[in-house]
Fold this protein.
Amino acid sequence: MAMAMGWFPTPFTRTTTSIINCTNHHPHHALDASYVKRAALLSDKSACFTSPHPNFGCVIATTGNVVGEGYLYAQGTTPAEVQAVEAAGEFCRGATAYVNMEPGDCHGDYTAVSAFIKAGITRVVIGIRHPLQHLRGKAIQSLRAEGLQVDVLGEDIRSISIEDALKSCLVVNAPLLYRSACRVPFSVLKYAMTLDGKIAATSGHASWISNKESRSRVFELRGRSDAVIVGGNTVRKDNPRLTPRHGGGHLPMRIVMSQTLDLPEVANLWDVREVPTIVATQRGARKSFQKFLASKGVEVVEFDILNPKDFVDYLYDRGYLSILWECGGTLSASAISAGVIHKVHAFVAPKIIGGKNAPSPVGELGMVEMTQALELIDLSYEQKAPSKPPHLQDVKFLSGQTNGSEHHNTPPTGTIGSDVLISGYLQPIPDLTPIIPSVDETSAIDPSISPYDAPIIFFYKTWDPYGSFSNFSPHPIRLPDENGDYVTWSSVEHYYQAHKFVGSSNPNALSYIEAIRSAKSPEEAARMGRKTQREHPDTVRADWESKKTEVMYKALKCKFSIYPHLNSMLLSTSGCILVEASPHDLFWGGGRDGEGLNYLGRLLMKLRSEFLGDDDTHKPEISARY
């Protein structure tokens, strides 16, 4: 991706300027930058297969040779740093570790930091500091306290040679940066249009504007997203599936935004056997149709007033990092006007269709002068050539420049009939140091918050301050099976999902249990368990509904008993109310407005009381900031 200087907001702009003006170029800076960039590229390897999670990559090198590397496969799996250390083995001693982002040990055990220290790593080069405030700078401080040399690009290493590596680190974790600084998911608008700016003919027919290669690129974009959004008109006219179609891996949530629920009863999106669907609508809209959707397994979420801003806030609460908007002009204009779109991918096909009433990709924005036009920054161009072009011919096109200059070159394919993908940001990647108000400031803003009320600690994703309370945290547990033989489970979620089928009389149950136990990540285990329960309800144990809280409590007790740092963290919350902040799981979570049963939070508080001997009067050592 071609990127221009000067588009970062302060304070990064000041850092970038100092890099350019720096005249003291250390001979190793270019090598350091190349390894950090390699770590950033490594971190992106899990895209399309797992989501959501921050992207971590690690490269260990000594005397100019790579001796070990790794990347985070999924939330709750082995850290990239640990993988790299294990791959390098004895070559770690005296070596340098390169990471695209500061290690983010959300679980209180500093696994990645400890791996570097124990392996004998003497120097760590970091691309960017961790964007989450409760983790930012902690790993750096810990490493330096142990005597390791830690260099951060743009801070300790200042040279024009690191520019490209820095940008790679920012781009690969742009979703996390947006989430941290702006408290919204990273939203990308995608559309395909003809040269005359039409996304369909006057009749509404749109299959296909772009070529097969462009559509394959769209599948990749979907696979990199946590959710894909369309409007009701798209469902009515196109009947999309919104699947990545890559033959496996991560399947994003499919979302329909419709105020009136004027939607067809027959639609591909109502088939949720493989991929779930959410329909967002306004409160009270077509209650009978809501019941129909619910009978199909479609999740319906009501809003007092359905608009893009409130909806992305809801998706933020669900823990989503990246959203792909594939909607029509009306909804895209509303999303842009609401300020929730951060990046645009526009596929331009070399076709002209005309039509006074043919739809365009973006509807009315209220602009009356060209000077009001929104300009994309950090532009890049890709050409999507057809597999079998009729003939070849040199074609000149504009490369990605943002300074007003026109630089012509020849694309690698050089073919007539190719689509061009134009990409750029509507909003720059945000500042790395978000300002989080203190408790006193929050109380001043909202007088309803009383310092005398029992504090509430919310937890949900593993990257949260209390992420260790999540079932997805990477803490293996070991418990006896029905025969008394001890079995190791990679996480509480693995154990819980598999035990939906333990004791089932169905002969296929054993294979489902083993498949879930072997899942690479808690996310995969959850997906497999839920899918099997939905598609094969006859394999679920008959007493599951009455036993599931007992199963969960048993797993939680094991987890918080065998890890001392987790036990301490739980006990430190004494006097606090624990709430699993899922806005959609009304059994285990607290719900959007506190309407959920919060059974996971309740079980953790029950466990805390058990550990304390029912003396739950200890003062918390860790204060909640929510």
